[in-house]
Amino acid sequence: MTVLLHHGFLFNLWFIPLAPFVGFLVNGIFGRHLPKWLVTAVALLAPLASFSAVLYESNFSLYTQTEIFGTWINIGALHIDFSFVLDQLSLVMLLVVTGVGFLIHVYSAGYMHDDEGYARYFSYLNLFLFFMTVLVLAGNALVMFVGWEGVGLASYLLIGFCFQKNSAADAGKKAFIVNRIGDFGFLIAMFLLLANFGTLTFTEIAMKLGQDPGWQGGVVTVIALCLLLGAAGKSAQVPLYVWLPDAMEGPTPVSALIHAATMVTAGVYMIARTHVLFDHSPFALSVVAIVGAATAIFAATIGLVQNDIKRVLAYSTISQLGYMFLGCGVAAYSAAIFHLVTHAFFKALLFLAAGSVIHAIGGEQDLRRMGGLWKKMPVTFAVATVGVLAIAGFPPFAGFFSKDAILYAAYLHGASGKALWFVGVVTALLTSFYMFRLWYLAFLGQPRGEAAPHHSTPWSMLAPLVILALLSICGGWIGIDRTAGSTGLSGLSNLSGLVNWINMERFSGLLAPAVGAGAAGGGSAQLELILSGAAVGGALLGWLLAHLFYRQKSTLPVRVAAALPAGYKLLANKYYVDEFYGAAVVKPLLAISTYLLGWVVDKALLGGAAWLIGGIATFAGALLQRWQSGNIRSYAAWLAAGAAAVLLFLVVPWATAWAASLEFVGKMAGH
Amino acid sequence: MSSLLTQEVPISWYLLLSAVLFSLGVAGFLIKRNLITVFMSIELMLNAVNLSFVTFAHQWHAVKGQIFVFFVMVVAAAEAAVGLAIIIAVFRARATLAVDRIDLMKL
After folding, report:
1. Rounded distance, CA A12 to CA B16, Å?
2. pLDDT tier at A336 (50, 70, 90 boundaries)?
3. Do B29 and A633 count as a contact with CB atoms less than 8 A apart?
4. Is residue B15, in this structure, part of any structural domain at all?
5. pLDDT at position B3
6. What is the pTM of this model?
7. Which of chain B's residues have a Cβ under 8 Å away from the Cβ of A622?
8. Which of A9, A18, A210, A289 counts the highest number of beta carbons within 10 A?
9. Residue A272 CA to its chain's centroid (Å)
10. CATH code, domain with B7
11. Which helix or strand (DSSP H or E) is residue A69 part of?
C-alpha cells in the first residue's frame, strides 16, 4: 500500500468537496437575488464538477492515495490531521454519490421548478454533497465524523424543507434526534480508539491491529459495537430505523438522494471502512449480521401494507439496508458495497419515478387513489418497471447480482449462515411482493379517484430516470466482468480483504460457465446456481402472489386482511414501534424533564437559590436604605458617633495594649 | 495664695474647656431645629478647635498653631458670609428655617 503525499496545485482531492461547497455558498447567500437560470446553473455545475473530478481520478488499479491538508489537532501524543484517502472503496462510493447526486440535481431542477424556495433547496442539496464527499473521503474517523454530522444537518434541513408544515418540521427533528443516539455511539467508539490505539487514522488502526494478534474481542468488540450503533442510527437499522419513514416528508428528490441512495448508506460504508475492527471481533460481526437480517425482514413486513407510495419505498430502503448490514455481518463487505451501489441506482430510480408520478397527479401519494397510469406516463412506467424488477432481484437486472452476492456469502457463513440466508430469501419474496403490489396499484388496472396526470413530465426529470434505468439494468454486470479478468476492475482485489470486490466467481458459475469459477469458502458453482435459483424463485413467487392479489382478485387483499385482523392491524400500525418508543422513551423523558428537571431542579433548586441570593441582597438593601434617610442631622449624628469611636480607639489604653500584645506575639513567633 | 495667682492655668483646663465647647457645638448641631442656631453651633465647634490650637501653640512655643487659628477665623468669616446669605435665601423661598423641613434633596 503506497502512501502518497500530494502537494500539487492543479488538481487534488479537495476539489471534490469544494465544488458543491462553493455552490452552497453562492446559492445560499445570493440565491434569492439571482435569476433562476443562474441558480440552476450553479447548482448543477457543482456536482457535475465533482463528478468529473472523480471520473478523472477513477483508476481502479490505483494505489491508496492519501492527502494531508494540515494538522487539525496536535496535543501531546494526540495528533489528528485533515486527511483525505482515495482508495477503491471511497472511489466506488464517490462515483455513486456524485454521479447519482448529479442526476438527482438535474431531476430536482424540473421537480422543484415552481417552488419558491428553489435556491434554498439547491443550496441545501449542494451542502449535502459537500459533507457526503467529506465523509467518504475522510482519512480518519474525526474527519468522517464531520461529514457524518454534516449530512445529518443537511438531511434535517431538507426533511424540514417545507417547514411551514408541522409534520415536516417534526419529522426533521425526529430524524436529527434519533441520529444523535447513533452519533453518541460513534463518539464513544472514537474515544475508545484514541485511548487504545492512540490514533483515529484508519490505515494506522489497521496496521496496529495487524501487528499485534492480541487484539481480539474485548475492547475491540466494544468499539465495533459502538460503531455499529452509529451506523444503525445513520442507516436506519433496528432499533433506530424509526426516523426514516417520517423523513419522507421531505421533497421526493431528497428522499431519493439522501434517504435512499447515499446518506443512509453511510453506515454501511463506515463499517466497510473500519472493517478491520469487525474482523477482529466475531461477536460484533454476528451482531451486525443479526441486526441486518432482523431489519431486512422486519421492514419488509411493514412495507407490505403501507398505502403511501413513498412510505412503501422507505420501508423497502430500510429492508435493503438490512441486506447490506447482513452482507457486512458475514464479512462480505464487498458484496455489501456492491449492493449499496446497485441499490443506489434502482432505489433512486424508484423514488424519482414515484416523484414523477406524484408530481404529475398533483401531490397525491396514496396508492389507493392511483392506478392505470401506464398509459398516461409510458416513460415513467417503463423505468419504474425496470426499478421494480431490479429490486425484486430478477436477472439480469442489477439487484439480482448484488443481492445474491450477499445471500451466497451469508449461506457460507458459519453455523448461523443458513438461518441468515433463509431470512434473506424470505425478505426477497416479501420485497418482490410489495414492490409488485406498488407497481400494480400505481400503474396498472383502472384509474381510481381523480388522480389523472395534470401536467406532462419535463425532460429534466425524464432524462435522469432513463439513465438510472440503464444503470439499474447494467449496474450489476460489473460483477461479471471481474471474474472474466478482462477489465481494470481487477485491481479491486488488492485492498486487504475489504474490497475483495467480487469474490463472486459465482456469477460466472451462473452466467458464464466457461470460466469455470471455483468457490472460496466451501461453495461451488452448483451451490451458487441453486441458491440463486431459490432467491429468484422466491422473487417470482412474490410476483405471482402480488399478481393474484392486486391484478386478478382485487378483493383478496381485503379478505385476507379481514381474516387476520390482528396481524393486519399490527403491520398497518408498523408493529406499534413508534407508540412503544413514545411510551417507553419519549413520555418518561418528557416527564423527567418536566417534573424532575423542570420543577425540582430548575424551579425549586436553581430558582430557589436565585431567589435566596436576590432576597438577601434585597433585604440588606432595605436595611441599608434606612441609613440614607436624607436627614442631615442623622448624618451628622453618625459622623459624631464615628468621630467618637475613632477617639475612643485612639485614646483608650486598651488600643495600645492590643498593639503591644500583637508586638509581643510577633516577637514570640520570631524566635 | 500668691502661688495660685502666679501659677499658670494648667493646660488641661484649656483643653477641657475646648472639649466642653466642642461637645456643646455638636449637641447643638444635632438637636437644634433652627438653621441659625445650627449655624452658630458650627461656629462654636470651630472656636473650640481654635482654643485647643492656641493652647498647644502656647504649650510648645510653636507659632504654627497661632497661624492656623487665623486661617480658621478667615474661613469661618467667609463661611458666615456665604452661610448667612444662603439662610436668607432659604428663608425667602421657604418661609421657614426649620432644618427638618428643608428636605427637598431627600430621596
Report:
1. 100
2. confident
3. yes
4. yes
5. 65
6. 0.77
7. none
8. A289
9. 14
10. 1.10.287.3510
11. strand A65-75
Q: Is residue B107 part of a domain?
A: no
Q: How many domains does chain B have?
A: 1
Q: Which residue of B30, B100, B107 is in closest CB contact with A628?
A: B107
Query: Does B103 contact A631 at a Cβ distance shorter than 8 Å?
Result: yes
Q: How far is it, in rounded angstroms, from Cα A402 to Cα A400?
A: 6
Using a CB-CB cut-off of 8 Å, the residues of chain B touching A632 are 99
Residue type, A197: F
Note the pLDDT tens digit of each residue in A468-500.
Answer: 999 999 887 776 544 333 333 333 333 323 333
Spatial distance between the Cα atoms of A365 and B1, rounded to a whole number of angstroms: 132
Q: How confident is the model at residue A126 (pLDDT cuts 50, 70, 90)?
A: very high
Measured CA to CA, the distance from residue A85 to residue A552 in angstroms comes to 54
All residues of chain B having their beta carbon less than 8 Å from the beta carbon of residue A629 are 106
In-domain check, residue B100: no
Question: Of how many residues is chain A composed?
Answer: 671
CA angle A120, A122, A126 (to 5 degrees): 120
- Please determine, for residue A315, whether its predicted confidence score (pLDDT) is greater than 90: yes
Domain that holds residue B64: 2-94
Residues of A with CB below 8 A from B42's CB? Answer: none
Q: Is the ipTM of this complex over 0.90?
A: no
Residue B9 inside a domain? The answer is yes
- A71 forms beta bridges with A81
Q: Count CB neighbours of A270 within 10 A.
A: 25
Q: How many residues does chain B have?
A: 107
Say which DSSP state A583 is in.
I
Interface of A with B in 615-654 (CB under 8 A): 628-633, 636-637, 640
A253: cis peptide before it, omega within 30°? no
